[in-house]
Amino acid sequence: MxxxxxxLVKIVGERFVSNQPEERFLYSRxxxxxxxxxxxxxxxxxxxxxxxxxxxxxxxQKIPLVPMGGGLVLSGLSRPLQGGMVLDMKRMNRILExxxxxxxxxxxxxxxxxxxxxxLKKHHPRLKHSIPDAPPIATIGGNVLIHGSGHLSAAxxxxxxxxxxxxxxxxxxxxxxxxxxSASPYWFSRSPLPDLAGLFLGWHGTTGVVTKxxxxxxxxxxxxxxxxxxxxxxxxxxxIIRRLARVQVAEDILAWMSPKPDWAKGFQMINIAYxxxxxxxxxxxxxxxxxxxxxxxxxxVGGFMPLPPDMKVRFLEAPQSTLAVFADxxxxxxxxxxxxxxxxxxxxxxxxxxxxxxxxxxxxYSLGARIVGLAHCMMFFYAYxxxxxxxxxxxxxxxxxxxxxxxxxxxxxxxxxxxxxAQKQIIKKMDPNxxxxxxxxxxxxxxxxxxxxxxxxx
Amino acid sequence: MEHAEILHRCFRCGYCKLxxxxxxxxxxxxxxxxxxxxxxxxxxxLLRAWLDxxxxxSARLQEILFSCTACGNCVEHCVxxxxxxxxxxxxxxxxxxxxxxxxxxRRVSDFFKAIHLYGNPYKLPEADxxxxxxxxxxxxxxxxxxxxxxxxxxxxxxxxxxxxxxVAGLLQDRGVSFGIxxxxxxxxxxxxxxxxxxxxxxxxxxxxxxxxxxxxxxxIITLSPHAYHAIRNYYPxxxxxxxxxxxxxxxxxxxxxxxxxxxxxxxxxxFHDPCYLGRHNQDYLxxxxxxxxxxxxxxxEMDRARVDALCCGGGGGNFFTDLLGSGPDSSSxxxxxxxxxxxxQVLAVACPKCAKMLEDAVKAEALxxxxxxxxLAELVQARSV
Lengths: 458, 385
Fold this sequence. Notes:
The structure holds 2 protein chains of 2 kinds.
Chain A: H1 2-12, E1 17-18, H2 21-26, E2 41-43, H3 48-61, E3 65-68, E4 85-88, E5 95-99, E6 104-108, H4 113-123, E7 127-128, H5 140-145, H6 153-156, E8 163-169, E9 175-179, E10 209-216, E11 218-219, E12 223-231, H7 237-246, E13 252-257, E14 268-276, H8 279-292, H9 294-298, E15 302-304, H10 309-316, E16 333-342, H11 347-361, E17 365-372, E18 377-387, H12 391-411, E19 414-416, H13 420-429, H14 432-445
Parallel strand pairs in A: 2-4, 3-4
Antiparallel strand pairs in A: 1-2, 5-6, 6-10, 7-11, 8-9, 8-10, 12-14, 12-15, 13-14, 13-17, 16-18, 16-19, 17-18
Helix pairs in contact in A: 1-3, 11-12, 12-13
Chain B: H1 28-33, H2 40-51, H3 59-66, H4 73-77, H5 87-101, H6 106-118, E1 146-149, H7 151-156, H8 158-173, E2 178-180, H9 190-194, H10 198-215, E3 219-222, H11 225-234, E4 243-246, H12 247-254, E5 267-271, H13 285-292, E6 297-299, H14 318-321, H15 331-341, E7 346-349, H16 352-364, E8 372-375, H17 376-383
Helix pairs in contact in B: 2-5, 8-16, 8-17, 12-13, 15-16
């Protein structure tokens, strides 16, 4: 153990390696409900070359290696289930290139969402990236690699679909570039080459350590607005969402259903955020959105909620800082959610069953759905708060999450960034040949089985 | 432990690590060390684990707790309205637990010992305390309108003394009625308090309060925002109620009649908000009013200013204990690079600790030819006829 520590010190310097109880404690857990697993070492590389050396060391010594971004996934994916090293990537946080003409940015994998947002606002104010509602310290790399979504997902799909290319240290230590950057100085696209990015997206760090990536940028419009369409029958939601999305005006469509604040209880609120170059264009877009749901307005089964300016500002905030506050709903400090990727047509049962689980398990809840693409699918979230200081309450939330994962799979959805038990549930439902292919690919890429072991295993 | 009931309520969302713009890391110890353990949320979780005996008392834990600069960025940017005000108080209380256990880093115990033995952290004779005023012809305090409180840095630190002389000289020139305690002055105790030594702080505060009251002090001008904070916000707990002003607030009053007379050659200045004037006491305007009153001075704000200012790294006792350490990621060096990026010729400060920390950082960054650190009073003097 001591020899490994010394080797790591040689690679990254003494300041950036720890085998101390404090780091072993903190990096054994995330803010969610999953039980802790302590690493033997926490290492913070600063360059791709350092990552390579660490990976080669891990290979030689057959030591598990778990890459970590912001550590905010909540489902415990960066806990080292079999000990070994946690690779905290946040020192690699440089913004390397912004290509205004082709609307992309190249960043190191540990660059934070907030840092990029601020950088673009200052240096490229006409461009923005799709920011998730995770706190701004969350990393761009981490969110793309888990197939995240965010404030431009109605316009641009999953964040993994906004990925133009990446640099990855393979589990055997070689560096590979994926996408146009593998054959060109530009990071403009993953097409037209064989799309090897799929070897690293959604794999929870089991196939390599991504060190750089390029993502698409979108216009940052000077005029922005948000409307909230309110209904009280979830059966109406799929058609309304489809109509709102197909106008192709919204940047973000987010439904939310929560017992708090009081005025929202019992309703389904659908936020539609959009931007424009001029006031006239904004007005036109607002009219188009209204027109799209006219039949529901006429039937008086839905309507736009009048929003005071301060509330609009809050709903346009990206990320929404108030979301984290859900953790303190019962002075408990914790929440976790199942994010279920599923077809929009399942909105009503997804909502009803989620409500049943939350009420039967007596957990404080918040439900909602971020629409991806032109209502091509949604990330339906079931967030449950818990009291970190009360193990029975944590267990209650865990049970609600387990029930929800099972319910989602039963309905035909798939839990996103699933906890390891939920991964096993997914594998059970999965075509055996698909899982066999995953294992074959993994064996080829990671012959020593060092990369985040315990994930995507039956 | 006081505030233990909020430790588990921290979600570790990380807003506390950032400024409001999210542009870069704004927690000095997290910026420097990068381990999650050195972030405010990390400290909260570690403290809980330590109280629950999940982790032992260790040198590492001590370093983690005492490297906090108490800058208040975490309090400012925490998104949990129901307990954010006590985030820093919890960390201070945690330090207090370690102090009570006698488990503090050597540099911290040396600091406390120096205060006990010498009444100052420099281990210099109390008799030398008033030496900074030599040759200025300042009067001892004898019932003048104000007591000018130089504090330890203003009395013993070379950079601080220069600043104390500039401030006192300016007050003298402008006819402000004030006196000093000289050798009778004692440490204000702010760093002692921030390092969790509540008992020693109370002793210091009571001593100073008695001294002030005996002398008939009603109004106090402090050189340091640290002293301003302690006397203004903590001395009242021991019945020490005084009208406390930071010297920038007196300068602003003196200059409120319009543009000051003097040199008007163009000068671009950026201002570094001291944490104990800014975030801890919400005064962001006064120093800027002083700068605005100077002819020819143009203020170029840093990206991180006011509530978002990056601490110089000298707070929470680190000016003396330096548990934060040095290097390119030390907040003082990051801060002067940020100041230089504004194109300013002068980095204006209003705190002797900031002055020293940032001046050293300018040297470390080899920015001496581009950027000069000047305190507000020095700047006013230089621009006056």
